[in-house]
Design goal:
single chain; about 70 residues; mainly alpha; about 0% strand; Mobilization protein
Amino acid sequence: YYEDGREHTYHYVPGKNEAMSMAKSAILQKEFRNERKMLDVSYRMFRFMVNPKQALIAEAKRLVKDALTGKI
């Protein structure tokens, strides 16, 4: 419990916030670029298996966005 009587809603892990912050900054700095690409591809493949129609719409939106931003 906190000093004011509220109950803790999560288990405190020392250093967790610092570790998450370091991981996020590493991802943002593209240190895990290949891992991120692999995760994105896996997610898109899974989305096609679950709901092909919605996946096609999402993929078309992604391609248009990439074309407009110059990523293609």
